[in-house]
Amino acid sequence: MPRQVDHAERRRRIADAVCELADERGLEGVTLRDVAARAEVSMGAVQRCFRTKEEMLVFALGHIGERIGARVRARLVRSPAQSAGTALGHAATEVALLREEHRAEARVWLAFVAQAAVSEVLAATVQANYAALHESFARLIEEACTDTGAAGAGADTGRAAPLDPRREARALLALADGLTTHVLIGHLTPREAEDALHTHLARLLPQ
User: Fold this and answer.
1) Residue 32, exposed/middle/buried by CB under 10 A (0-12, 13-18, 19+)?
2) How many CB atoms lie within 10 A of CB 82?
3) Which of 15, 21, 71, 187 has the most other CB atoms within 10 Å of its CB?
4) Is the distance from CB of 67 to CB of 95 less than 8 angstroms?
């Protein structure tokens, strides 16, 4: 009896192969033939999973976004007793990809983001990932403000106006994303980037 193929698992293997090759060579070095060899499947198997190279890249990009999102969600549920502000710090650190074990993932993510600037299909996937992260950040900021009373206490915290969670979430996401680049090119060390991130959070949500 022929062995049943797990198509979802095969697609994930192919996505992992795309990411490995993109890390080594950049997206321009990713070919269907090399992806098949790295994933240890036939060219036909790759083409049965994905009709075009662009479709394969979109899936691989979504695969990376899901891995990052899963780590963020895991940090949020790992310690239910943590404050919303602490959870926000953990989530932002995960998104910034500052740890050494996430350095390859950071390189691949930025390669995809650069390609998305000239690909509407990839851009739509990146936008969806950012939108989901923005919603998570905004929710945590709103919860943290409720915990501390900061949302409606502009005078007490030195702010001229109440804090806007959605606006602050956009700024925090942009900062975390920018720190990824600064660490990758060596402008900042991971420790300096984490310090910049947590300094911003301390000003955003003073204890």
Assistant:
1) middle
2) 15
3) 15
4) no
| Residues ≥6 apart with Cβ < 8 Å to 140 | 76, 84, 85, 87, 88, 91
Measured between alpha carbons, how far is 185 from 35 in angstroms, rounded to an integer? 27
Pinpoint the alpha helices (H) of 151-189: 154-157, 165-184
Burial class (CB in 10 A: 0-12, 13-18, 19+), 136: buried
Closest CA to 71 of 44, 42, 105: 105
Q: Decide: residue 81, CB within 10 A, 0-12 exposed, 13-18 middle, 19+ buried.
A: exposed
Query: Tens of pLDDT along 45-92?
Result: 999 999 999 999 999 999 998 888 888 888 777 666 678 888 899 999
HSE-up (13 A, CA, CB side) for residue 59: 20
31's enclosing H/E stretch is: none
What distance, in Å, lies between the first and last C-alpha atoms of the chain? Answer: 64
Over range 127-146, report the average pLDDT.
92
Confidence (pLDDT) at 75: 76
Q: Give per-residue pLDDT as tens, 39-50.
A: 999 999 999 999
Q: What is the mean pLDDT of residues 134-150?
A: 85
